[in-house]
What we know:
heterodimer, A: mainly alpha, 11 helices, 78% helix, B: mainly alpha, 79% helix, elongated, ABC2_TM (chain B)
Amino acid sequence: MFRFRCRFLGFRFHASSRLLVVGGAISYRALFNWTTPPMFIGTLLVGPLLQVFFFVFLGRELGVADDRFHLVGNAVLAASASCVYGGTMAVANERRYGTLGAVLLSPRHRLPLWAGRALPYVLNGLFVSAFVLTTAALVLGLPVPAGALPGLGLVLLAAAGACSAFGLALGALGLRFRDVFLVSNVASSVLLLLTGAAVPRETLPEWMRVAGGLLPLTHAADAARGLTAGAGLDGHLLGAELAVGAGWGLLAVVLLAVFERGSRRRATLDVM
Amino acid sequence: MTRPTRVLRLIGVGVRTHVSYMSRSPIEITFAVLVPLVYATLAVYLFRAAGDPDRLLTASVGAGLMGIWGSVLFGSGGAVQNQRWLGTLETLVVAPTPLALVLLPITLATAVIGTYAMGATVLWGVLLFDVPLDFAHPLLFLVAVPVCVLALGMMGLLLAATFVLLRNANALANPLDTPVWLLSGLLVPVTVLPAWTHPISWALPTTWGARAVHAAASGGDVVPPLLTALALGAGYALAAVLVLGRVERRARAAATLALA
């Protein structure tokens, strides 16, 4: 009996892992069949990189913070382009293309199903942040200590994960509202303001600082700044980023479940 | 009706139609109002943190100009893309009216929608941050903004002409947002940029339009940069007509208009 249960659990784990990885990869390829290398390079790599230069020169003119502050903050924020919009599209595009019904017909557990959809965006966001950080550091002549690289990798991964969970929570609104991209556009801009990527958080009012603390990327940006300045990895900041990500992930799963039930009840799953 | 009158009427009716159409789109309004408000807030906090409260109006006006450019950029890219998706691009191309005259009202309309950003950011600054509305040249400001919008609309026409060639114009539009903010001195003076970027800045109507609007708000010569912006905008529009003619002929010959 015990052996059977172990084998059964092993099978469940294998099936869930497969759903997470293979299902996520297929979904990513299907939903992004329209994209092209120029689109990827222009939107996800060049755009955020140029944004770094904009804020670095703005920072130099105003003297509010140094180059490192703006460079690292915006490099971490660069993950939001793929994670927030990606997470939103992971749900909203299924509805737009009429495949949501087929996905939700599946009897599989929703957690690996939706987490699998977010996974490619986590990797995407990690790649984008790493590219922007490396390129901007090279162009602006701001070296990153080699010893900080493992910690930076960890922080950027946590940031991309939290941001993808945030994107998925916004995407869940796509099951209920027609134009969810409106929400993701505003959310993306709000991240720029509240996470302290572009403006030092101590200059913001208290309520904005609190709101920023509940958003992804905020703690990761601070942790990454500390790492590039040679201060070592701040475990508290990394833990806070992971906790924020877990919170948004939980909210996403709950919202997806609630809106799925509501859509089934009202028969509005595919209604645009 | 004489030809110039017909052209003006076409542009007038076209701008009115497209402004009405875009004003009813939540996503257009979001881009035109909410996103610039975030940038205005960010700019005001940055300028305050820099201990530069005298330039808060510059920050609000700069954020508004950024919104106008964003509207023109994505609107002009979307102008052709939308017509292509709606299946009306072929109809517009075969109409007896030159394609440039059909697209110009769309790009002008995107710039007009962008002025929502200017209104919103200035009002936002006044209501939330007590930014004083002491324009150096209030009347010239009211002239400078529409002329800047006109120049940007003409620049948008060249963008739209270029985007006809591209299957997915967003690939070019997305990364063009911030470099133009930077190179045109919308929020940061172009003097802080490396010297090699200055010729690029001078070639952009946005640089001169922004200079005129900032001068009208904070002081300085308004008319010379305004006229320069208009002249450059006209040059861009002329280039757009030439590019569009070439693109249209090529697309007709290859039968790739809907696929380009």
